[in-house]
Amino acid sequence: MKKDDNKTPVVKIIKANKIYGSNYAIRDVDLDLYEGEIHALAGENGAGKSTLMKALSGAIGLTSGKILLNGIEQSFNTPHDALEAGISMVYQEPDLVNEMTVGQNIFLGNEKALMRLRGIFIGAQQILQSMKFGVDTAVKVERLGEAKKRMVEIARAILFNPKILIFDEPTSTMTPEEKMYLFSAIRSLVSRKISVLFISHALEESLELADRITVLRDGEHIITADAKTITRETLVHHMVGRAISKTHYVKGTKRQREVIRKKRKVLKVENVIKRPYVKNMSFTVYSGEITGIAGLVGAGRTEIAKIIYGAWKRNVIRGGMIYLDNKPIRYRVPAQAINDGIVYVTEDRKRNGFFETMTIHENVYLGWLATKLGRRFLISKKAREEIGNTWIERLKIRALDPKLKLIELSGGNQQKAVVAKSLVQKPKLVIFDEPTHGVDVGAIEEIHNFIRSLVKEDIGIVVISSYLPEVMSISDRILVAKDGRIVEEFKPQDATQEKIMYAAVH
Amino acid sequence: MVSKDQNSTTWSLDLFFKGGFKNITQEQIILLIAAVFFVFFAFAVKGFATFGNITIMMRNISVLGIFSIGMGTVVIAKGIDLSEVAVGAMSAAWVLQLATDGMNLGYAILLGVALALFLGGLNGYLIAFIEIPALFATLASGIYVFGFVRYFLLNNQENHFLPKADSAFLFVGQGKIIGIPTPIVIFAAVALLAHLFLRLTRHGRFFYAMGDNEDAARMTGISIRPMKIFQYSLCSLIGYLAALVMMGTTGSINVRIVSSTLIFDVVLVVVLGGISLIGGRGSVFSVIAGVLLVGIILNGMTLLHYTLPTQDLIKGIILLGAILLDTFLHPRDEETARQGDI
Fold it and tell me: Could you tell me the CA-to-CA distances from A210 to A159, A186, A416 in Å, in that order?
């Protein structure tokens, strides 16, 4: 793909700003996108990639700034406006109806009246063929792999004749083979003169796929460079180049351990089976250290945590034993686990993490009320204030007004409140599942520091995370899960991203 | 972040709530509307604003109010109990049957408590353990309770009367305590107790937690299933109390009340006052606000000799208005919507 500097870019974003409250989500960001170009956006969580893309696809409006399409200024109020203008978006999670066939999914919402199934299949086949996608149109979507699902989504987007396609982290749940497959599909779009914007926080992918890369950091535009001339190291430097990142990802061994105590076996999982999620999983958790569990989504990490915690509605396992302090345990409901001193910090706080109509104090106090210690008839407002304030201070929760309901706070503060609600229950074992998912950069560091500070207490700590730098920096021992088993164990000084990824995939 | 997005569609009504009345709650709006209606009827209808009429009005809404408090506690925990009237009224009818057959009224009332608790507990069991949605479980139990009690426990009459020997019981419905009619006193007492329970006790807070987010409540370690059995038993018990007051007012129970629209009036009152069906929102004040508005409107319309269809029409419009208001105050968009909303 050759880019001609005299040409007007298909998309030109000039000085885009988006302000939430008093914080800039993006600040004076410029971006050019030329015809037939694959342009990657790189940056850490919270760098503003998603905000920029949402603005471009019409999901949110900009506070200030211009979006030019082919040199003409546009303003989108709804995603539909953007679609009309030729901008389609493929979201992080496949947005398809599993029960329907590929053909029906491609035409969903665009069927003509009385359109026959045969017509749909032929139409879908034409679109798929034109891009050389090998997907059978008569197969139900639930039987497809991730890459093929993406292709169906691309085909559906193509139906609108888009000029620009935006991919938001399309590869986060894919195996390497599927990635290769998808990348060749994306490259074939270029021949149709479609421009592609590609968001990913895996740098290798961006370097491999893109023609140019733009790096955002803390909402600001750092650099736009040709993918062929920039190296991974410079890219990382641009992405994290700030004081915080120096201390942010330090390998576990280099950290100073203030207390070295004799390790005690807290939890032992032996050959636990719950098909199809968990197959013969075994591992041990010791007190006074952090056990990290890495792996792909669907490797059975969250599932084993839920088995231990009793969070499944039908918590039946087909074999194996779980020991807490050398006593066998098996819970039907989380209440029993909490009584015995196990807490689980959920990966999806919106779904089952916090009470949105209540304040931080009420949330934390409810956690305390649900324990043995909190078993009392009347509540105490004084205790609520005390407990709430203690934890607000310990976790550095910064709410403008403590009377605000939790739904009105930022993701970072919500996550901290969820952590506080669990930790107030005085656990012997705490399992953090994706503890920094959807949390801003500053809060990530504070949550990490807090988790590290727990090492001083005589409790077992498990951190489940799909984000490798997080697992590598926080853990004292790294376990890698794959297909419902723990397949590898690393010491942090031996672990590299490549080694962990290799173990998680092969 | 949802509502603060500057580009979200600002509608005039939205502006009105966000700008004009920044922190107004639904029950305050309903109280305001009730006051407007009160003033309107006071001028429009002769004899409306007299002490006598207001006492009658209050007495009439007491039964509805007690029923609504029972329903309110369940709706706060994101459930609904459509069998409340059936369980309450049929238990009360059984009490009258037992008394007519010669049993001491006191024992009969205790047996009625047991029946109401059993039926409420059964509701809770169906919802908590078998995991039937509350709407269907209680819709069905309202029907089978009616059939079961009528077939096995009552003789085949519709009207059951209080025996002459037990007419002292009429004090519950017709008497006065320091000049205030007893039903009002009972309503006030139930409201106060329910309020203290919901605000100040551990289990009351669990009601709100479960209504707010049941999954989160479970993960926090609240024992959801026993709590549900407790909720539906409590609701049935309060419903039974309401039916006893109703029995005290007329000295009889007509089992036809079960198939009347009373249960929908109860839901109307609860939702009107701001106990949202989303769960976790509202309080006993919401019930009081709702019951005042409904009471004032019903009484005023009766005095104006509106026909029943007209009254139903107006009630229906008010319910729709309340739900619209609920939607504006608690908008359901991507961020706030949850699966399983009724």
Answer: 24, 10, 36
Q: Which of residues 251-280 of B touch A (CB under 8 A)?
A: 280
Same domain for A433 and A292? yes
Specify which residues A485 forms β-bridges with: A482
C-alpha–C-alpha distance, residues A361 and A363, integer Å: 5
Please report the ipTM that was assigned to this predicted complex.
0.85
List pLDDT tens digits, range A308-335: 999 988 878 888 899 999 999 999 999 9
Question: Is A333 within the bounds of a domain?
Answer: yes
Look up tokens 């056990």; give the residue: A291
Cα B32 off chain centre by:
21
Residue B334 domain flag:
no
> Domain of A427: which CATH number?
3.40.50.300
Q: Which DSSP helix (H) or strand (E) runs through A41? A: strand A38-42
One domain, residues A167 and A316: no
Q: Is B117 helix (H, G, I), strand (E, B) or coil?
A: helix
- Say yes or no: A242 and A314 in one domain: no
Q: Which of A337, A355, A379 sits opposite B216 (nearest CB)?
A: A355
Q: How many domains does chain A have?
A: 2
What CATH number should be reported for the domain holding residue B178? 1.10.3470
Count structural domains, chain B: 1
Q: In the structure encoding, which two tokens stand for residue B193, read together? A: 């107790």
Give the whole-angstrom CA distance, residue A332 versus residue A269. Answer: 17
Strand partners for A345: A432
- Biggest CA pair distance of chain B: 72
Are B221 and A351 an interchain contact pair (Cβ–Cβ within 8 Å)?
Answer: no
List the single residue in A353, A377, A425 with the smallest CB-CB distance to B201.
A377
Range of the domain at B317: 12-329
A241 shares its domain with A262: no
pLDDT the model gives residue A467: 80
Q: Which two tokens stand for residue A413?
A: 């503060």
Q: Which of B261, B257, B254 is nearest to B313 (CA)?
A: B261
**A467 and A351 in one domain?**
yes
Residue A123 pLDDT exceeds 60: yes
| Alpha-carbon span B229 to A33, nearest angstrom | 60
Let me know if residue B342 belongs to a domain.
no
Domain match, A271 and A286 both: yes
Q: Which of B90, B60, B108, B75 is nearest to B239 (CA)?
A: B90
Report whether A310 contacts A286 (CB < 8 A). Answer: no
Query: Do B75 and B231 form a contact (C-beta atoms < 8 A)?
Result: no
Q: Say yes or no for a CB contact (<8 Å) between B205 and A375.
A: no
A149 and A237 fall within a common domain:
yes
CA dihedral A51, A54, A56, A62 (to 10 degrees): -60
Evaluate whether residue B6 is within a structural domain: no
Segment (H or E) for A471? helix A468-474
H runs (alpha helix) in chain B: 12-15, 26-44, 51-76, 84-100, 105-128, 134-148, 171-174, 182-200, 202-212, 214-220, 224-250, 262-272, 284-303, 308-329
Range of the domain at A18: 11-248
HSE toward the beta carbon, residue B241, CA cutoff 13 A:
24
Dist. CA A33–CA B198, nearest whole Å: 58
- Of A219, A248, A277, the residue that ends a domain is A248
A226 lies in the same domain as A261: no
> Do the domain assignments include residue A4?
no
Which A residues, 43 through 82, put their C-beta within 8 Å of a C-beta on chain B? 60-61, 63, 77
Q: How far is A379 from chain B (nearest CA, A)?
A: 5
Q: What whole-number distance in Å separates Cα of residue A148 and Cα of residue A155?
A: 10
Is the pTM for the entire model greater than 0.80? no
What are the pLDDT digits (tens) for A200-244? 767 777 888 889 999 888 788 888 888 888 887 787 778 766 444
Residues counted in chain A: 506
Q: Is residue A477 part of a domain?
A: yes
Nearest residue of B to residue A371, measured between CA atoms? B221
